[in-house]
Amino acid sequence: MAKSYSEVIQLNDSFEIAKQKVEEALVKSRFKGSRWVEQQQAYYSETAVTLWSWGEDILVRIQKKDEGTEVQFSSTCKLATQIIDWGKNKKNATIFVSSLHGS
């Protein structure tokens, strides 16, 4: 239960298709304010404040690989002083990966 969680997902899709799938997965996951930053080849998003957390920052990087595309998902607690995430960051990753494979 650290204050961040990361996961790497391999897709057998082109960069453009992977980018589209990631965008759809972010919407399905109900993350807010998703925006694409071309220079970093990444989406930035966030979760809402809940009873259990002050929200999390979501970063999804997309990289071309020799075979397919690599998606790097990261969820980090917004509140810098928060030490324990109560499993929220891993839950965000699970929701995103499920949405990504369902898109």
**What does the radius of gyration come to?**
13 Å
CA distance, first residue to last residue:
28 Å
The outline comes out as elongated
The poorly predicted ranges are: none
> What's the CATH class, please?
Alpha Beta
Proportion of residues in β-strands: 35-45%
Q: Roughly how much helix do the residues carry, as a percent range?
A: 25-40%
Major sheet = 5 strands, antiparallel
* Mean pLDDT value: 94
The CATH architecture can be named as 2-Layer Sandwich
What string, H for helix and E for strand, traces the elements in order?
EHEEEEH
Number of domains: 1
Count, helices:
2
Secondary structural class? alpha+beta
The strand line-up of the biggest sheet is: 1-5-4-3-2
Q: Could you name the CATH topology?
A: Alpha-D-Glucose-1,6-Bisphosphate, Chain A, domain 4
Number of strands: 5
Short summary of the structure?
By secondary structure, the chain is α+β, with helices and mostly antiparallel strands. The protein is built from 2 helices and 5 strands, in the order βαββββα. The model has no long low-confidence stretch (mean pLDDT 94).
Structure characteristics:
103 residues; alpha+beta; Alpha-D-Glucose-1,6-Bisphosphate, Chain A, domain 4; 5-stranded antiparallel β-sheet; 2 helices; 5 strands; 28% helix; elongated
Protein topology:
Blueprint: E1 4-11, H1 15-28, E2 32-37, E3 42-46, E4 56-64, E5 69-77, H2 88-102
Antiparallel strand pairs: 1-5, 2-3, 3-4, 4-5
Helix pairs in contact: 1-2
Care to describe what's here?
It is a single chain. This protein is of the alpha+beta class and 103 residues long. It has a single domain, classed as Alpha-D-Glucose-1,6-Bisphosphate, Chain A, domain 4 (2-Layer Sandwich). It is 28% helix and 36% strand. The chain contains 2 helices and 5 strands, in the order βαββββα. β2 and β3 (42-46) form a beta hairpin. The longest helix is centred in the last third of the chain and has 15 residues, at 88-102. It is elongated.
